[in-house]
Amino acid sequence: VADVSSEGRRRIMQSIRAKDTQPELAVRRLVRELGFHYRLHRKGLPGRPDICIARLKAVVFVHGCFWHQHAHCGTGKVPQSNRGYWLKKLRRNIERDAEARRELRRLGWKVMTIWECQVDRANVKRRLSSFLLEAEFLRKL
Ligand SMILES: [Zn+2]
């Protein structure tokens, strides 16, 4: 990544430090606590979802608010410097995400997205739980 702004560099460093991110670890822990088995980053699935519960045909994406441009979220703001570069790059991420979700749903997968800014909220476990229970219910039909 040549010639990015210092703000851009900071973002990149943040995202590198954040590999196997805290939010991902937290969501995995919740899935385990709810009693479901999962696999990580399953190859061959569109978008390589962060968490895949094959038995339920359900996947969960844990999205960083900046890289995946969480709307209405302060963290998602595009840097002012090198704005063109960032807009292009981030727009590509958004398009890729949308395409992956579309493709997964077309293949019959249930898709949930959890944003990093939501992970620590009290209701995230309940949301996750209803998503997985619904997926389980649909599997039995
Ligand atoms: Zn957010």
Summarize the structure.
This protein has 141 residues and is an alpha+beta fold. It has helices at 6-17, 22-33, 83-106, 124-140, and strands at 39-40, 51-53, 58-63, 110-115.
Q: How would you describe this structure to a colleague?
A:
The protein is 46% helix and 12% strand. By secondary structure, it is of the alpha+beta class. A 4-stranded mixed β-sheet has the order 1-2-3-4, sandwiched between helices. Strand 3 (58-63), helix 3 (83-106) and strand 4 (110-115) form a beta-alpha-beta unit. It is globular. Zinc ion binds at residues 65, 70, 73, 75, 115, 117. Residues 65, 70, 73, 75, 115, 117 line the site of zinc ion (ZN).
Structural class: alpha+beta
Biggest beta sheet summary: 4 strands, mixed
Mean pLDDT: 88
Oligomer: single chain
The largest sheet has its strands arranged as 1-2-3-4
State the main characteristics.
141 residues; 4-stranded mixed beta sheet; binds zinc ion
Describe the secondary-structure layout.
Layout: H1 6-17, H2 22-33, E1 39-40, E2 51-53, E3 58-63, H3 83-106, E4 110-115, H4 124-140
The structure holds zinc ion.
Zinc ion binds at residues 65, 70, 73, 75, 115, 117.
